[in-house]
Design brief:
CATH topology of the largest domain: Heat Shock Protein 90
Structural class: alpha+beta
Oligomer: single chain
Number of strands: 13
Radius of gyration: 48 Å
Helix content: 40-55%
Distance between the termini: 69 Å
Strand content: 15-25%
Shape: elongated
Number of helices: 13
CATH architecture of the largest domain: 2-Layer Sandwich
Order of helices and strands: HHHHEEHEEEEHHHEHHEEHEEHEEH
Number of domains: 4
CATH class of the largest domain: Alpha Beta
Protein backbone atom coordinates (compact mmCIF):
# COMPACT_ATOMS: atom_id res chain seq x y z
CA UNK A 1 0.00 0.00 0.00
CA UNK A 2 1.42 3.38 -0.96
CA UNK A 3 2.07 5.95 1.71
CA UNK A 4 -0.08 9.04 0.95
CA UNK A 5 2.37 11.37 2.70
CA UNK A 6 5.25 9.98 0.71
CA UNK A 7 3.30 10.28 -2.53
CA UNK A 8 2.39 13.84 -1.63
CA UNK A 9 6.04 14.75 -1.15
CA UNK A 10 6.98 13.14 -4.46
CA UNK A 11 4.38 15.23 -6.26
CA UNK A 12 6.25 18.44 -5.35
CA UNK A 13 8.50 20.30 -7.77
CA UNK A 14 11.99 18.94 -8.31
CA UNK A 15 15.10 21.08 -7.90
CA UNK A 16 15.44 21.40 -11.67
CA UNK A 17 11.95 22.86 -12.09
CA UNK A 18 12.33 25.04 -9.03
CA UNK A 19 15.53 26.47 -10.50
CA UNK A 20 13.70 27.16 -13.76
CA UNK A 21 10.81 28.85 -11.94
CA UNK A 22 13.10 30.93 -9.71
CA UNK A 23 15.25 32.08 -12.63
CA UNK A 24 12.16 32.88 -14.69
CA UNK A 25 10.80 35.02 -11.86
CA UNK A 26 14.17 36.73 -11.44
CA UNK A 27 14.49 37.49 -15.16
CA UNK A 28 10.90 38.75 -15.31
CA UNK A 29 11.45 41.08 -12.36
CA UNK A 30 14.75 42.32 -13.81
CA UNK A 31 13.18 43.03 -17.19
CA UNK A 32 10.19 44.73 -15.59
CA UNK A 33 12.45 47.01 -13.56
CA UNK A 34 14.50 47.83 -16.66
CA UNK A 35 11.38 48.62 -18.68
CA UNK A 36 9.88 50.84 -15.98
CA UNK A 37 13.05 52.86 -15.42
CA UNK A 38 14.48 53.00 -18.93
CA UNK A 39 11.27 53.34 -20.98
CA UNK A 40 8.20 54.24 -18.95
CA UNK A 41 9.85 56.72 -16.57
CA UNK A 42 12.51 58.01 -18.97
CA UNK A 43 10.86 61.43 -19.49
CA UNK A 44 10.31 61.85 -15.75
CA UNK A 45 13.94 61.12 -14.96
CA UNK A 46 15.06 63.37 -17.80
CA UNK A 47 13.11 66.32 -16.39
CA UNK A 48 14.24 65.54 -12.82
CA UNK A 49 17.91 65.55 -13.82
CA UNK A 50 17.41 68.74 -15.83
CA UNK A 51 15.80 70.50 -12.86
CA UNK A 52 18.73 69.59 -10.59
CA UNK A 53 21.25 70.65 -13.21
CA UNK A 54 19.60 74.06 -13.68
CA UNK A 55 19.37 74.64 -9.91
CA UNK A 56 23.08 73.88 -9.55
CA UNK A 57 23.98 76.26 -12.41
CA UNK A 58 21.87 79.01 -10.81
CA UNK A 59 23.74 78.62 -7.54
CA UNK A 60 27.07 78.95 -9.33
CA UNK A 61 25.97 82.06 -11.19
CA UNK A 62 24.60 83.66 -8.02
CA UNK A 63 28.13 83.66 -6.60
CA UNK A 64 29.47 85.71 -9.58
CA UNK A 65 26.71 88.33 -9.99
CA UNK A 66 28.87 91.34 -9.19
CA UNK A 67 32.08 90.10 -10.78
CA UNK A 68 33.49 91.11 -14.13
CA UNK A 69 33.68 87.53 -15.41
CA UNK A 70 29.92 86.97 -14.97
CA UNK A 71 29.35 86.69 -18.70
CA UNK A 72 32.09 84.06 -19.02
CA UNK A 73 30.53 81.91 -16.31
CA UNK A 74 27.10 82.36 -17.86
CA UNK A 75 28.47 81.26 -21.22
CA UNK A 76 30.09 78.17 -19.65
CA UNK A 77 26.92 77.15 -17.83
CA UNK A 78 24.82 77.66 -20.95
CA UNK A 79 27.09 75.41 -23.00
CA UNK A 80 27.38 72.74 -20.31
CA UNK A 81 23.64 72.55 -19.72
CA UNK A 82 22.49 73.32 -23.30
CA UNK A 83 20.20 76.06 -22.03
CA UNK A 84 19.57 79.77 -22.17
CA UNK A 85 20.85 82.08 -19.46
CA UNK A 86 19.43 85.52 -18.77
CA UNK A 87 20.38 87.65 -15.79
CA UNK A 88 18.53 90.84 -14.85
CA UNK A 89 19.16 93.54 -12.28
CA UNK A 90 15.84 94.76 -10.93
CA UNK A 91 15.37 98.00 -9.00
CA UNK A 92 12.35 100.13 -8.20
CA UNK A 93 12.95 102.31 -11.24
CA UNK A 94 14.38 100.08 -13.94
CA UNK A 95 15.15 96.55 -15.10
CA UNK A 96 18.60 96.03 -16.62
CA UNK A 97 19.62 92.94 -18.54
CA UNK A 98 23.18 91.97 -17.57
CA UNK A 99 23.65 88.72 -19.48
CA UNK A 100 21.80 86.95 -22.26
CA UNK A 101 23.23 83.68 -23.60
CA UNK A 102 21.35 80.97 -25.49
CA UNK A 103 22.92 77.59 -26.29
CA UNK A 104 19.69 75.73 -27.06
CA UNK A 105 19.41 76.81 -30.68
CA UNK A 106 15.76 77.65 -30.05
CA UNK A 107 15.93 81.26 -28.93
CA UNK A 108 12.62 82.67 -27.95
CA UNK A 109 11.16 86.14 -27.62
CA UNK A 110 12.79 88.64 -25.24
CA UNK A 111 10.93 88.89 -21.93
CA UNK A 112 9.02 92.05 -21.37
CA UNK A 113 9.27 94.07 -18.17
CA UNK A 114 5.87 92.83 -16.98
CA UNK A 115 6.94 89.23 -17.51
CA UNK A 116 10.19 89.79 -15.61
CA UNK A 117 8.32 91.33 -12.67
CA UNK A 118 5.86 88.45 -12.69
CA UNK A 119 8.74 85.97 -12.65
CA UNK A 120 10.37 87.85 -9.76
CA UNK A 121 7.10 87.65 -7.83
CA UNK A 122 6.87 83.89 -8.60
CA UNK A 123 10.40 83.28 -7.30
CA UNK A 124 9.75 85.41 -4.19
CA UNK A 125 6.63 83.38 -3.39
CA UNK A 126 8.80 80.22 -3.42
CA UNK A 127 11.58 81.49 -1.14
CA UNK A 128 13.68 82.86 -3.99
CA UNK A 129 13.92 79.72 -6.12
CA UNK A 130 11.40 78.14 -8.46
CA UNK A 131 11.45 75.66 -11.34
CA UNK A 132 8.50 75.12 -13.65
CA UNK A 133 7.24 74.89 -17.21
CA UNK A 134 6.50 78.07 -19.07
CA UNK A 135 5.70 79.11 -22.62
CA UNK A 136 7.59 81.81 -24.40
CA UNK A 137 4.75 84.10 -23.64
CA UNK A 138 5.11 83.58 -19.91
CA UNK A 139 2.16 81.21 -19.49
CA UNK A 140 2.84 78.61 -16.79
CA UNK A 141 2.09 74.98 -17.68
CA UNK A 142 0.79 72.48 -15.10
CA UNK A 143 3.72 70.38 -13.83
CA UNK A 144 1.48 67.34 -13.44
CA UNK A 145 0.75 67.33 -17.17
CA UNK A 146 3.34 65.30 -19.07
CA UNK A 147 5.17 67.36 -21.68
CA UNK A 148 4.94 64.56 -24.26
CA UNK A 149 2.00 62.19 -23.65
CA UNK A 150 2.64 58.66 -24.92
CA UNK A 151 6.21 59.75 -25.75
CA UNK A 152 4.91 61.83 -28.75
CA UNK A 153 5.25 65.61 -28.88
CA UNK A 154 2.15 67.68 -29.57
CA UNK A 155 2.04 70.94 -31.49
CA UNK A 156 0.50 72.75 -28.54
CA UNK A 157 3.47 71.80 -26.39
CA UNK A 158 6.17 72.72 -28.90
CA UNK A 159 6.95 76.05 -27.22
CA UNK A 160 7.02 74.67 -23.63
CA UNK A 161 10.29 75.20 -21.82
CA UNK A 162 11.63 74.26 -18.42
CA UNK A 163 12.53 77.48 -16.63
CA UNK A 164 14.41 77.91 -13.39
CA UNK A 165 14.16 81.21 -11.49
CA UNK A 166 16.67 82.32 -8.90
CA UNK A 167 15.99 85.63 -7.10
CA UNK A 168 18.97 87.12 -5.24
CA UNK A 169 18.03 90.18 -3.16
CA UNK A 170 20.51 92.80 -1.94
CA UNK A 171 20.40 95.03 1.11
CA UNK A 172 20.05 98.22 -0.94
CA UNK A 173 16.61 97.19 -2.21
CA UNK A 174 17.85 95.89 -5.55
CA UNK A 175 17.65 92.30 -6.72
CA UNK A 176 19.08 89.99 -9.36
CA UNK A 177 16.89 87.61 -11.30
CA UNK A 178 18.58 84.60 -12.90
CA UNK A 179 16.42 82.96 -15.56
CA UNK A 180 17.57 79.63 -16.94
CA UNK A 181 15.51 77.97 -19.64
CA UNK A 182 15.93 74.68 -21.44
CA UNK A 183 13.81 72.97 -24.01
CA UNK A 184 12.16 69.71 -22.96
CA UNK A 185 13.42 67.61 -25.82
CA UNK A 186 11.05 64.98 -27.22
CA UNK A 187 12.54 61.57 -26.41
CA UNK A 188 10.49 59.39 -28.73
CA UNK A 189 13.53 58.39 -30.77
CA UNK A 190 15.48 57.60 -27.62
CA UNK A 191 12.58 55.55 -26.29
CA UNK A 192 12.42 53.57 -29.53
CA UNK A 193 16.15 52.86 -29.29
CA UNK A 194 15.77 51.73 -25.70
CA UNK A 195 12.82 49.53 -26.59
CA UNK A 196 14.87 47.81 -29.27
CA UNK A 197 17.72 47.37 -26.81
CA UNK A 198 15.23 46.08 -24.28
CA UNK A 199 14.14 43.31 -26.64
CA UNK A 200 17.72 42.29 -27.28
CA UNK A 201 18.57 42.40 -23.59
CA UNK A 202 15.49 40.30 -22.79
CA UNK A 203 16.51 37.67 -25.31
CA UNK A 204 20.10 37.56 -24.04
CA UNK A 205 18.97 37.33 -20.42
CA UNK A 206 16.60 34.47 -21.19
CA UNK A 207 19.35 32.56 -23.00
CA UNK A 208 21.81 33.19 -20.14
CA UNK A 209 19.19 32.11 -17.60
CA UNK A 210 18.58 28.88 -19.51
CA UNK A 211 22.31 28.12 -19.70
CA UNK A 212 22.74 28.87 -16.00
CA UNK A 213 19.79 26.66 -15.04
CA UNK A 214 21.28 23.82 -17.05
CA UNK A 215 24.70 24.39 -15.46
CA UNK A 216 23.32 24.52 -11.92
CA UNK A 217 21.22 21.45 -12.57
CA UNK A 218 24.30 19.54 -13.70
CA UNK A 219 26.34 20.65 -10.67
CA UNK A 220 23.67 20.75 -7.93
CA UNK A 221 20.59 18.78 -8.81
CA UNK A 222 22.21 15.88 -10.64
CA UNK A 223 24.52 14.88 -7.72
CA UNK A 224 21.58 15.18 -5.32
CA UNK A 225 19.45 12.94 -7.52
CA UNK A 226 22.23 10.33 -7.57
CA UNK A 227 22.65 10.55 -3.79
CA UNK A 228 18.89 10.20 -3.38
CA UNK A 229 18.93 6.97 -5.39
CA UNK A 230 21.82 5.67 -3.29
CA UNK A 231 19.98 6.65 -0.10
CA UNK A 232 16.99 4.58 -1.21
CA UNK A 233 19.28 1.56 -1.47
CA UNK A 234 20.63 2.40 1.97
CA UNK A 235 17.07 2.32 3.33
CA UNK A 236 16.74 -1.28 2.09
CA UNK A 237 19.81 -2.37 4.04
CA UNK A 238 22.44 -2.13 1.28
CA UNK A 239 25.16 -0.47 3.32
CA UNK A 240 27.90 -0.93 0.69
CA UNK A 241 26.59 1.93 -1.47
CA UNK A 242 28.89 4.85 -2.22
CA UNK A 243 27.77 8.48 -2.34
CA UNK A 244 29.60 10.68 -4.82
CA UNK A 245 29.19 14.45 -4.55
CA UNK A 246 30.50 16.27 -7.59
CA UNK A 247 30.52 20.00 -8.07
CA UNK A 248 30.24 22.28 -5.07
CA UNK A 249 31.75 21.93 -1.62
CA UNK A 250 28.36 21.47 0.07
CA UNK A 251 27.44 18.48 -2.13
CA UNK A 252 30.86 16.92 -1.51
CA UNK A 253 30.45 17.42 2.25
CA UNK A 254 26.95 15.91 2.07
CA UNK A 255 28.33 12.90 0.19
CA UNK A 256 31.09 12.47 2.79
CA UNK A 257 28.51 12.67 5.59
CA UNK A 258 26.28 10.09 3.93
CA UNK A 259 29.26 7.79 3.33
CA UNK A 260 30.17 8.10 7.00
CA UNK A 261 26.55 7.40 7.99
CA UNK A 262 26.50 4.39 5.67
CA UNK A 263 29.71 3.08 7.22
CA UNK A 264 28.35 3.57 10.75
CA UNK A 265 25.04 1.91 9.88
CA UNK A 266 26.96 -1.02 8.41
CA UNK A 267 29.04 -1.26 11.57
CA UNK A 268 25.98 -1.03 13.82
CA UNK A 269 24.22 -3.67 11.74
CA UNK A 270 27.22 -5.96 12.12
CA UNK A 271 27.38 -5.30 15.87
CA UNK A 272 23.66 -5.95 16.18
CA UNK A 273 24.06 -9.32 14.53
CA UNK A 274 27.02 -10.09 16.77
CA UNK A 275 25.01 -8.95 19.79
CA UNK A 276 22.15 -11.30 18.94
CA UNK A 277 24.59 -14.17 18.38
CA UNK A 278 26.50 -13.49 21.60
CA UNK A 279 23.38 -13.05 23.71
CA UNK A 280 22.00 -16.24 22.24
CA UNK A 281 25.22 -17.99 23.21
CA UNK A 282 25.17 -16.59 26.75
CA UNK A 283 21.52 -17.51 27.17
CA UNK A 284 21.97 -20.97 25.72
CA UNK A 285 24.83 -21.95 28.05
CA UNK A 286 23.04 -21.44 31.40
CA UNK A 287 19.77 -22.81 30.03
CA UNK A 288 21.57 -25.93 28.79
CA UNK A 289 23.26 -26.45 32.14
CA UNK A 290 20.03 -25.86 34.06
CA UNK A 291 18.18 -28.29 31.82
CA UNK A 292 20.96 -30.89 31.98
CA UNK A 293 21.40 -30.86 35.75
CA UNK A 294 17.64 -30.84 36.26
CA UNK A 295 17.21 -33.91 34.05
CA UNK A 296 20.06 -35.68 35.85
CA UNK A 297 18.49 -34.98 39.25
CA UNK A 298 15.13 -36.17 37.92
CA UNK A 299 16.26 -39.36 36.19
CA UNK A 300 19.18 -40.58 38.31
CA UNK A 301 18.53 -41.47 41.94
CA UNK A 302 20.95 -39.93 44.36
CA UNK A 303 21.98 -37.04 42.07
CA UNK A 304 19.72 -34.62 43.87
CA UNK A 305 22.75 -33.28 45.73
CA UNK A 306 23.43 -29.81 47.06
CA UNK A 307 26.28 -29.39 44.55
CA UNK A 308 24.02 -30.03 41.58
CA UNK A 309 21.33 -27.79 43.02
CA UNK A 310 23.96 -25.08 43.57
CA UNK A 311 24.98 -25.30 39.89
CA UNK A 312 21.35 -24.78 38.89
CA UNK A 313 21.06 -21.83 41.29
CA UNK A 314 24.32 -20.28 39.99
CA UNK A 315 23.29 -20.58 36.37
CA UNK A 316 19.84 -19.19 37.17
CA UNK A 317 21.49 -16.27 38.96
CA UNK A 318 23.77 -15.68 35.99
CA UNK A 319 20.80 -15.79 33.64
CA UNK A 320 18.95 -13.31 35.82
CA UNK A 321 21.99 -11.00 35.88
CA UNK A 322 22.21 -11.09 32.09
CA UNK A 323 18.55 -10.16 31.71
CA UNK A 324 18.86 -7.42 34.33
CA UNK A 325 21.93 -5.95 32.60
CA UNK A 326 20.11 -5.93 29.29
CA UNK A 327 17.17 -4.13 30.90
CA UNK A 328 19.46 -1.62 32.64
CA UNK A 329 21.34 -0.93 29.41
CA UNK A 330 18.08 -0.46 27.53
CA UNK A 331 16.77 1.97 30.16
CA UNK A 332 20.01 3.98 30.18
CA UNK A 333 20.20 4.28 26.41
CA UNK A 334 16.50 5.13 26.06
CA UNK A 335 16.75 7.84 28.73
CA UNK A 336 14.09 6.32 30.97
CA UNK A 337 16.57 5.57 33.76
CA UNK A 338 16.41 8.38 36.31
CA UNK A 339 19.53 8.99 38.34
CA UNK A 340 19.19 9.74 42.09
CA UNK A 341 22.02 12.17 42.82
CA UNK A 342 23.35 12.47 46.36
CA UNK A 343 26.49 13.42 48.26
CA UNK A 344 28.59 10.47 49.35
CA UNK A 345 32.16 9.42 50.07
CA UNK A 346 33.52 7.91 46.84
CA UNK A 347 36.57 6.50 48.59
CA UNK A 348 34.41 4.63 51.10
CA UNK A 349 32.27 3.30 48.22
CA UNK A 350 35.34 1.88 46.48
CA UNK A 351 36.52 0.28 49.73
CA UNK A 352 33.07 -1.28 50.14
CA UNK A 353 33.29 -2.80 46.65
CA UNK A 354 36.78 -4.14 47.36
CA UNK A 355 35.55 -6.00 50.46
CA UNK A 356 32.99 -7.88 48.36
CA UNK A 357 35.81 -9.32 46.25
CA UNK A 358 37.68 -10.76 49.25
CA UNK A 359 36.01 -14.16 48.99
CA UNK A 360 36.60 -14.32 45.26
CA UNK A 361 40.27 -13.43 45.53
CA UNK A 362 40.75 -16.01 48.31
CA UNK A 363 39.28 -18.89 46.28
CA UNK A 364 40.48 -17.99 42.75
CA UNK A 365 43.93 -16.64 43.56
CA UNK A 366 43.40 -13.12 42.16
CA UNK A 367 45.18 -10.12 43.67
CA UNK A 368 42.97 -7.02 43.69
CA UNK A 369 44.53 -4.00 45.39
CA UNK A 370 43.21 -0.51 46.06
CA UNK A 371 45.57 2.52 46.22
CA UNK A 372 44.36 5.90 47.48
CA UNK A 373 46.30 8.92 48.77
CA UNK A 374 43.35 10.98 50.04
CA UNK A 375 39.62 10.76 50.41
CA UNK A 376 37.12 12.44 48.09
CA UNK A 377 33.38 13.07 48.06
CA UNK A 378 31.22 13.44 44.96
CA UNK A 379 27.65 14.30 44.00
CA UNK A 380 26.32 11.40 41.93
CA UNK A 381 24.04 8.37 41.88
CA UNK A 382 25.73 6.05 44.38
CA UNK A 383 24.13 2.85 43.12
CA UNK A 384 25.00 3.57 39.51
CA UNK A 385 28.62 4.40 40.34
CA UNK A 386 28.92 1.17 42.32
CA UNK A 387 27.69 -0.64 39.22
CA UNK A 388 30.40 1.14 37.19
CA UNK A 389 33.07 0.00 39.67
CA UNK A 390 31.84 -3.59 39.62
CA UNK A 391 31.79 -3.70 35.85
CA UNK A 392 35.28 -2.20 35.46
CA UNK A 393 36.76 -4.60 38.02
CA UNK A 394 34.94 -7.58 36.49
CA UNK A 395 36.25 -6.61 33.06
CA UNK A 396 39.80 -6.39 34.44
CA UNK A 397 39.45 -9.81 36.11
CA UNK A 398 38.27 -11.38 32.86
CA UNK A 399 41.17 -9.98 30.81
CA UNK A 400 44.08 -9.71 33.26
CA UNK A 401 47.35 -11.54 32.70
CA UNK A 402 48.81 -14.73 34.19
CA UNK A 403 49.75 -12.96 37.41
CA UNK A 404 45.99 -12.52 38.10
CA UNK A 405 46.52 -9.00 39.44
CA UNK A 406 44.16 -6.05 39.22
CA UNK A 407 44.91 -2.56 40.56
CA UNK A 408 42.28 -0.01 41.52
CA UNK A 409 43.69 3.47 42.10
CA UNK A 410 42.17 6.77 43.21
CA UNK A 411 43.97 10.06 42.48
CA UNK A 412 42.94 13.68 43.07
CA UNK A 413 44.05 16.54 40.86
CA UNK A 414 42.65 20.07 40.49
CA UNK A 415 39.36 19.41 42.29
CA UNK A 416 38.71 16.24 40.27
CA UNK A 417 38.95 12.64 41.41
CA UNK A 418 39.98 9.86 39.03
CA UNK A 419 39.24 6.18 39.54
CA UNK A 420 41.34 3.88 37.37
CA UNK A 421 41.27 0.08 37.06
CA UNK A 422 44.38 -1.58 35.58
CA UNK A 423 44.90 -5.15 34.39
CA UNK A 424 48.01 -6.91 33.07
CA UNK A 425 46.42 -8.56 30.03
CA UNK A 426 47.25 -8.44 26.35
CA UNK A 427 46.05 -4.88 25.83
CA UNK A 428 43.96 -3.42 23.02
CA UNK A 429 44.90 -2.41 19.50
CA UNK A 430 44.74 1.41 18.99
CA UNK A 431 42.19 1.13 16.16
CA UNK A 432 39.85 -0.91 18.37
CA UNK A 433 39.82 1.30 21.46
CA UNK A 434 36.90 3.43 20.23
CA UNK A 435 34.75 0.32 19.70
CA UNK A 436 35.19 -1.46 23.02
CA UNK A 437 32.29 0.47 24.55
CA UNK A 438 29.85 -1.16 22.13
CA UNK A 439 27.59 -3.89 23.42
CA UNK A 440 29.26 -7.29 23.30
CA UNK A 441 32.19 -6.01 21.25
CA UNK A 442 35.09 -8.42 21.55
CA UNK A 443 38.64 -7.38 20.76
CA UNK A 444 39.69 -10.85 19.63
CA UNK A 445 36.33 -11.45 17.88
CA UNK A 446 36.13 -14.85 19.64
CA UNK A 447 33.18 -14.81 21.99
CA UNK A 448 33.87 -16.52 25.25
CA UNK A 449 31.93 -16.66 28.43
CA UNK A 450 33.02 -14.06 30.95
CA UNK A 451 34.40 -15.41 34.19
CA UNK A 452 32.57 -12.67 36.09
CA UNK A 453 29.69 -10.55 34.85
CA UNK A 454 27.60 -10.76 31.71
CA UNK A 455 29.76 -9.17 29.02
CA UNK A 456 27.70 -5.95 28.92
CA UNK A 457 29.76 -4.16 31.56
CA UNK A 458 31.54 -1.56 29.42
CA UNK A 459 28.33 -0.59 27.62
CA UNK A 460 26.65 0.01 30.98
CA UNK A 461 29.71 1.93 32.19
CA UNK A 462 29.56 4.21 29.15
CA UNK A 463 25.81 4.84 29.60
CA UNK A 464 26.13 5.64 33.31
CA UNK A 465 29.14 7.95 32.88
CA UNK A 466 27.44 9.76 30.00
CA UNK A 467 24.43 10.26 32.25
CA UNK A 468 26.76 11.87 34.82
CA UNK A 469 28.57 13.99 32.18
CA UNK A 470 31.78 12.42 33.46
CA UNK A 471 35.04 12.12 31.58
CA UNK A 472 36.20 8.57 30.92
CA UNK A 473 38.53 6.62 28.69
CA UNK A 474 41.01 3.80 28.35
CA UNK A 475 44.79 3.72 28.04
CA UNK A 476 46.25 0.56 26.61
CA UNK A 477 49.40 -0.84 25.05
CA UNK A 478 49.52 -4.17 23.31
CA UNK A 479 51.21 -6.66 25.61
CA UNK A 480 51.20 -4.33 28.63
CA UNK A 481 47.59 -4.40 29.82
CA UNK A 482 44.89 -1.73 29.91
CA UNK A 483 43.74 0.99 32.28
CA UNK A 484 40.10 2.08 32.32
CA UNK A 485 39.39 5.35 34.13
CA UNK A 486 36.70 7.93 34.84
CA UNK A 487 36.73 11.35 36.51
CA UNK A 488 34.21 13.29 38.61
CA UNK A 489 34.20 16.69 40.29
CA UNK A 490 35.08 16.65 43.97
CA UNK A 491 32.37 17.90 46.31
CA UNK A 492 34.72 19.28 48.94
CA UNK A 493 32.49 22.18 50.11
CA UNK A 494 29.55 19.88 50.87
CA UNK A 495 31.55 17.17 52.64
CA UNK A 496 34.71 18.29 54.38
CA UNK A 497 37.63 16.01 55.05
CA UNK A 498 36.62 15.60 58.71
CA UNK A 499 33.09 14.45 57.77
CA UNK A 500 34.54 11.97 55.27
CA UNK A 501 36.84 10.51 57.92
CA UNK A 502 33.95 10.22 60.37
CA UNK A 503 31.82 8.42 57.78
CA UNK A 504 34.63 6.00 56.96
CA UNK A 505 35.20 5.19 60.63
CA UNK A 506 31.52 4.45 61.11
Amino acid sequence: MRNPERCKKRNGLSIRWKLIVYFAIFVAIALLVMWVFQVYLLNNFYELVKRREMARSAQILSMHLEREDLDIHAYDQALDGVMGVEIYRVTENEITQLVSVDATGQAGNTLAAEQILRLCQKAAENEGSFTGRFTFGGLEVDNKRPPFPNNKPQASMSNVRLIHLELVERGDGSAYLIVLNAALQPLSTTVQILQTQFLWISTILLICAGVMVFYLYRHISSPLVKMNESAKQLAYGKYDVEFSGEGYRETRELADTLNYASHELSRLDRLQKELIANISHDLRTPLTMIKGYSEVMRDIPGENTSENIQVVIDETTRLSELVNDLLDLSKIQSGSYKAMFEEFDLTAAVEEVMKRYDAFTAHQGYHITFISCERAAVFADRGMLLQVLYNLINNAINYTGEDLSVTVQQTVHENRVRISVTDTGQGIEPDQISQIWDRYYKVDKVHRRAMIGTGLGLSIVKGVLDLHNAAYGVESQVGSGSTFWFELDILAPALGEREILEQSEE
